């Protein structure tokens, strides 16, 4: 999809559709909408008066062959209350416009930002919205009879003086949008097409193309490093594990900046192991590598955006299979850190592989950690698919910084408590710790505490994305399937140095 900035008057642009947005307010036909209204003979005012175009969030008003405009259609998307309007809403508006026009067989359109919105940040949000909305999870469909695609979008509403800002926003939005699509594409892959080895190959290819340092640890190296927790998960099936390490080193690191360690869970399929999962819905466990894919997507974006901070990404990758060699409930494993773990439930495997991933990231020099993982079903109970679950180590400042980034990019995240009392739930009886809680409830918190045992005193945030990494129902601005959640937050976090 080509996206360009155009500073010529939008009324004269030849396009299949002209798109803008309308606020829910007393007299919404102002500024650019007033100009359009005049061109088409007062129809917008009439539609608003009749209540048909009230400006409610994502309400669509489509006018065919608008007289006085060169466009084939005029689409106005509701933007909700003006005082609540922000880049997150604009991202959804551009996305919903794209999906609605694509469904109608439109191939190109002009998106006009409103009079106060011709800024770099808003241009970025529009482009992120467009690229995210254009992603379809239909890669393996062979009967794509319809040629429904958006080939080009023109961003308009900018003066010549605003062109530079618009183009900067466009470039950044494209990098982030395409990196998110890279992650979503990986997440969408079924486990027969994406084994740990294939994920490692794809990560290596991406890193080489982006100019990032990359190292793939194979099963031999993993054994040498004594990553016993990761190995205990991979021993249940024939596919060997991999640990993917991708590093971004800035040319001029900011003095005093941390070394950020991003650790992502990549279980390419989670059967549960011997503690096997029920058949119903098990197919969804192909997305149990979303944390790892997201971290790789972040690295892809950072390679192009070049923050002044070093970032080390560690992705432990494995299947969780119930074969004859699988670990069994009650087995005791020794993690790379030397801690012993009683594996009471083989389905709580994410925390096992993250234990070694987090320890290794520290060993490589990370001073501040973030992990992302589809860790617990319990987070879906707590927060549904609306918020990412956030869990903090002792350093709340680091967590606050991440939460500020999440807010800035419009990703919903919610912090849960990490009282010491919950830590008691995973105290071991026969080993140092056990991989599930012995108390009742608090499953997401005990999962987080398990990982925290390996982060130690290093500032650390855990993101439980089990509820948010996969969209069960299509949204107006996003297809059903992988979301790539947390990528924009982590890119923003690294870019804040
Ligand atoms: N991969 C699952 C968590 C999950 C659940 C991801 C739903 C996406 C959607 C994880 O490995 C798991 O099985 N967790 C167990 C932990 C339990 C055994 C303590 C769970 O949540 O049931
Ligand atoms: Zn599991
Ligand atoms: Zn899992």
What distance lies between the first and last C-alpha atoms, to the nearest angstrom?
A: 31 Å
Over the alpha carbons, how many angstroms does the gyration radius reach? 24 Å
3D shape: elongated
Largest sheet: 9 strands, mixed
Estimate the mean pLDDT confidence: 97
Helix content: 25-40%
Q: Can you tell me about this structure?
A:
- This protein is α/β, with parallel strands linked by helices.
- Helix content is 36%, strand content 20%.
- The strands form four sheets. Strands 7, 8, 9, 10, 11, 14, 15, 16 and 18 form a nine-stranded mixed beta sheet that branches. The chain has a six-stranded mixed beta sheet with strand order 1-6-5-2-4-3.
- Helix 4 runs parallel beside helix 5 (163-188), helix 8 (228-234) runs antiparallel to helix 10 (350-363) and helix 10 (350-363) packs parallel to helix 14 (443-455).
- The longest helix has 26 residues, at 163-188.
- The chain is elongated, with a radius of gyration of 24 Å.
- Ligand BES binds at residues 270, 288, 345, 347-350, 374-378, 436, 443, 466.
- One zinc ion binds at residues 270, 272, 320, 347, 349.
């Amino acid at each position: 999809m080509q996206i360009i900035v155009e500073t010529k008057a939008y009324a004269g642009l030849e396009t299949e559709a002209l798109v803008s947005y309308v606020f829910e307010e007393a007299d919404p036909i102002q500024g650019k909408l007033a100009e359009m209204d005049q061109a088409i003979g007062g129809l917008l005012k009439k539609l608003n008066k009749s209540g048909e175009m009230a400006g409610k969030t994502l309400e669509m008003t489509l006018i065919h062959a608008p007289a006085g405009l060169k466009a084939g259609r005029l689409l106005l998307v509701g933007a909700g209350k003006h005082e609540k309007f922000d880049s997150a809403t604009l991202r959804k508006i551009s996305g919903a416009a794209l999906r609605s026009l694509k469904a109608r067989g439109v191939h190109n359109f002009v998106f006009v930002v409103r009079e106060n919105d011709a800024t770099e940040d808003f241009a970025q949000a529009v482009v992120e919205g467009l690229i995210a909305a254009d992603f379809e999870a239909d890669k393996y469909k062979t009967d794509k009879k319809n040629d429904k695609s958006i080939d080009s979008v023109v961003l308009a509403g900018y003066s010549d003086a605003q062109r530079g800002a618009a183009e900067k926003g466009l470039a950044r939005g494209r990098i982030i949008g395409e990196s998110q699509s890279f992650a979503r594409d990986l997440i969408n892959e079924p486990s027969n097409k994406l084994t740990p080895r294939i994920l490692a190959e794809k990560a290596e290819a991406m890193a080489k193309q982006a100019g990032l340092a990359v190292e793939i640890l194979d099963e031999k190296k993993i054994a040498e490093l004594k990553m016993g927790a990761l190995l205990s998960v991979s021993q249940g099936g024939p596919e060997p594990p991999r640990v993917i390490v991708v590093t971004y080193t800035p040319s001029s690191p900011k003095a005093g900046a941390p070394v950020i360690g991003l650790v992502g869970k990549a279980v390419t399929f989670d059967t549960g192991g011997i503690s096997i999962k029920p058949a119903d819905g098990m197919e969804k466990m192909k997305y149990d590598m979303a944390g790892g894919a997201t971290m790789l997507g972040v690295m892809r974006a950072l390679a192009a955006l070049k923050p002044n901070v070093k970032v080390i990404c560690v992705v432990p990758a494995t299947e969780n299979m119930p074969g004859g060699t699988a670990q069994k409930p009650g087995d005791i494993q020794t993690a790379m850190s030397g801690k012993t773990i009683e594996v009471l439930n083989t389905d709580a495997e994410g925390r096992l592989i993250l234990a070694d991933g987090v320890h290794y990231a520290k060993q490589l020099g990370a001073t501040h950690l973030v992990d992302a993982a589809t860790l617990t079903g319990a987070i879906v109970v707590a927060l549904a698919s609306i918020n990412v679950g956030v869990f903090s180590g002792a350093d709340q400042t680091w967590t606050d910084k991440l939460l500020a980034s999440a807010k800035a990019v419009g990703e919903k995240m919610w912090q849960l408590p990490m009282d010491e009392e919950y830590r008691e739930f995973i105290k071991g009886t026969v080993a140092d710790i056990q991989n599930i809680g012995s108390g009742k409830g608090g499953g997401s918190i005990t999962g987080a505490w398990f990982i925290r045992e390996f982060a130690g005193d290093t500032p650390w945030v855990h993101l439980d994305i089990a509820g948010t990494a996969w969209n069960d129902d299509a949204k107006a601005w996003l297809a059903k399937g992988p979301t790539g959640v947390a990528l924009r937050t982590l890119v923003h976090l690294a870019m804040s140095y």
